[in-house]
UniProtKB/TrEMBL annotation:
GO function term, MF aspect, one: RNA-DNA hybrid ribonuclease activity
Protein name according to UniProt: LINE-1 retrotransposable element orf2 protein
PROSITE patterns: RNASE_H_1, RT_POL
Domain RNase H type-1: residue ranges: 458-589
Reverse transcriptase domain boundaries: 237-499
InterPro entries: Endo/exonu/phosph_ase_sf, Endo/exonuclease/phosphatase, RNaseH-like_sf, RNaseH_domain, RNaseH_sf, RT_dom
Length: 668
């Protein structure tokens, strides 16, 4: 493993001895120093080469120390920032840049972008940024911190800091985190970050970055055929001899606290063992072959569905449903036993996590997007960071995963694609202003005058009248087209449907026919005498299935079409309303129905009426009951029995009406 040190030394000469001690202890390959105060000709510690800024970069405040014998290539940076960089060959080749940003000098995204673009990837930018933000462990956020947050998020760089404080104020003894390690995504996973416990004479803690030299699964994937055969020979030798490499017997155990559990109890942690990827590859090979033997020889029970390829626990639920239906049909019983193993691994899976993310997080990002969606791109990118983090958590993806791969794996588009409004369809408008007039105190002539005023307002609109009608159990709906009566439609609904459903069905008939007229007209007005139907359309009450169907129809219209829904009074001599009413009533006598199903909301009043009638019949049989004399009809006077009198008086009234009180029943 290679170690890279980052340190704001606060004076190269004044802390030279401390620097030599630090190098002797750490044997670091590379050291990134800030606030050095150096000039040309400075002698470095023995065994190291000193690199100072070259070219356009001001010198003295940022420097690199590279251990002798390490191959490197100095980078001539064209920047006005205090920075020094080199491409260094360790166990892998990477670029290391030392950067110092003075606290009072202006720094822009543009200047940072110009610097980062000159650094070959993969790279580490190590330095004192003098930027405060909770994103890397600071207690406050300043302007530079906010700017740096946006810059990191926009470019998908990774901050390696663990959240520890790196700076101690010499006067106030306050702490902050202003020394940052920024990595390109491809190398971030191989770096571990830790702050030293000793200031070593400065007011900044030295920081150690360890570069892992272990093999990763990415190393195995592109291996050529010859290397795979060699690896197979190694696995076969281990399998036959039982001689397992010592490093394969070790694992880094990471305790993950279980959600909602007491973190002070060790049993409330789930342990994750991180092992050698070569060892895990061998384990997978053994497991695949064992599973093949079990499956090919039918050694597993045919009712075992969990953890088997091409089997799903959902299959068991389907079988249970089938057993239950058969038992009911044969008038038998089914006994099902469900048990869960305590402390078993949480059964949270990706689909549920994505569902939670979309419900709890993405919904908040979407809220108000019609308003803020036109903001500048760099403002909207702040939301992308939240979006990406949510997808990474739900998928279990590594933090350096490419963003577009996250979108594809989650089946979730970017916010750039989601935020712009895409809902098409006709523009629509509801006018229910006539509800302000009391029908009992308004004459038919007044209503007719008001209708003519409304008609004049929509004189350039193609008019349609709709209505619903009900007679006992028969229900029908109609749409009347005054300009083209032959286009008028009427249908009978299934018996038992509500008038509300009939009114919406009439509007649906009108919209279906209007769709055919959009080649000739752009503006339409639908007159309805149903306040409840228009209120449901206006409020977009999508809990009502018919409203969802209406909006689906509206969305199919070209965007240049405008549809207005206007409330008119019924049976006041308005010619179009009277005609559509006749059409609907005539449809009541049809023998065939539209085939439209009756929804539960329509059946509910009927069910309640039936239940109440059965209940009333049973209640009427209670002739000797004292309360029956006072309350012969169920449901009457229900809310006026001591209303507002308080709990004590209400209880007394109830006991008196029922006829059972302490005085009459105390002997029991």
């Amino acid at each position: 493993m290679d170690t890279v040190v980052q340190w704001n030394i606060r004076g190269f000469r004044s802390n030279f001895k401390e620097l030599k001690l630090l190098l002797n202890r750490s044997q670091s390959a590379v050291v990134a120093l800030q606030e050095c105060g150096l000039g040309e000709g400075q002698v470095p510690p023995r065994g190291y080469t000193l690199l100072l800024p070259r070219g356009g970069s001001p010198g003295g405040e940022a420097a690199l120390l590279i251990r002798n014998g390490t191959r490197f290539s100095e980078i001539d940076l064209k920047t006005g920032l205090h920075a020094a960089a080199a491409t260094i060959s360790l166990e892998k080749t990477l670029t290391v840049c030392s950067l110092y940003l003075p606290p009072n000098s202006p720094v822009s995204k543009l200047s940072l972008a110009e610097l980062f673009e000159q650094l070959p990837k993969p790279f580490l930018v190590l330095g004192d940024f003098n930027a405060h933000s909770p994103a890397w462990g600071d207690s406050r956020r300043d302007g530079r911190g906010k700017m740096l947050e946006e810059f990191i998020a926009e470019n998908d760089f990774i901050i390696l800091n663990s959240g520890e404080q790196t700076f101690v104020h010499s006067a106030y003894h306050s702490t902050s985190a202003i020394d940052l390690a920024v990595a390109s995504p491809s190398i971030a996973a191989e770096c571990s970050w830790a702050a030293h416990s000793d200031l070593c004479g400065s007011d900044h803690l030295p920081i150690f970055l360890t570069l892992s030299s272990n093999f990763s699964s990415n190393f195995l994937r592109p291996l050529p055929e010859s290397c795979l055969h060699t690896l197979l020979k190694l696995f076969n030798n281990i399998w036959t001899t039982g001689d397992i490499p010592p490093s394969w017997r070790e694992a880094s155990v990471v305790p993950i606290p279980k959600p909602g559990k007491d973190p002070s109890d060790p049993s409330n942690y789930r342990l994750i063992a991180l092992m050698s990827c070569l060892c895990k590859t061998l384990e997978r090979m053994v497991n695949d072959r064992l599973v093949h033997v079990l499956e090919s020889r039918n050694l597993l029970s045919n009712v075992q569905f969990g953890c088997r390829k091409d089997h799903s626990t959902l299959d068991h639920l389907v079988r249970l449903e089938t057993f239950t239906k058969k038992a009911f049909a044969r008038k038998k019983q089914v006994l099902a036993v469900f048990f869960d193993l305590e402390k078993a691994y949480d059964t949270t899976w990706r689909a549920n996590l994505l569902k939670l993310y979309r419900t709890l997080v993405r919904s908040k990002l979407d809220y108000g997007s019609v308003i803020y969606g036109s903001a500048k791109n760099h403002v909207l990118r702040a939301l992308d960071t939240i979006h990406h983090q949510g997808l990474r958590i739900a998928l279990g993806a590594f933090r350096t995963s490419p963003i577009k791969s996250l979108y594809a794996e989650a089946g979730e588009p970017s916010l750039e694609h989601r935020l712009p409004p895409t809902l098409g369809g006709a523009q629509h408008y509801c006018d229910i202003s006539l509800t302000k007039q009391n029908k009992e105190n308004t004459s038919e002539v007044a209503y007719q005058k008001e209708f003519f005023r409304i008609k004049e307002k929509f004189s350039n609109h193609y008019a349609v009248f709709t209505d619903g009608s009900k007679l006992e159990e028969k229900v029908a709906a109609a749409a009347y087209f005054p300009e083209h009566p032959d286009r008028s439609k009427a249908t009978r609904l299934r018996d038992g449907a509500s008038v509300f459903s009939a009114e919406l069905e009439g509007i649906a008939l009108a919209l279906t026919e209007i769709k055919k007229l959009t080649k000739y007209h752009q503006n339409f007005v639908i007159y309805s005498d149903s306040l409840s139907a228009l209120q449901a359309i206006q409020s977009k009450n999508f809990k009502v299935i018919d409203i969802r169907c209406l909006y689906n129809l509206i969305r199919k219209f070209p965007p240049y079409v405008h549809i207005s829904f206007v409330l008119i009074p019924a049976h006041v001599g308005i010619w179009g309303n009277e005609n559509v009413d006749k059409l609907a009533k005539a449809a009541l006598n049809r023998t065939s129905t539209s085939g439209k199903l009756i929804y539960y909301s329509d059946l509910k009043p009927k069910i309640n009426t039936y239940i109440k009638s059965v209940w009333q019949r049973d209640w009427d049989a209670e002739g000797a009951n004292k309360l029956h004399e006072v309350l012969p009809n169920l449901g009457e006077d229900l809310h006026r029995r001591g209303e507002g009198a308080g709990r004590k008086l209400e209880t007394a009234i109830c006991r008196l009406r029922v006829g059972h009180t302490w005085l009459t029943q105390s002997y029991l």
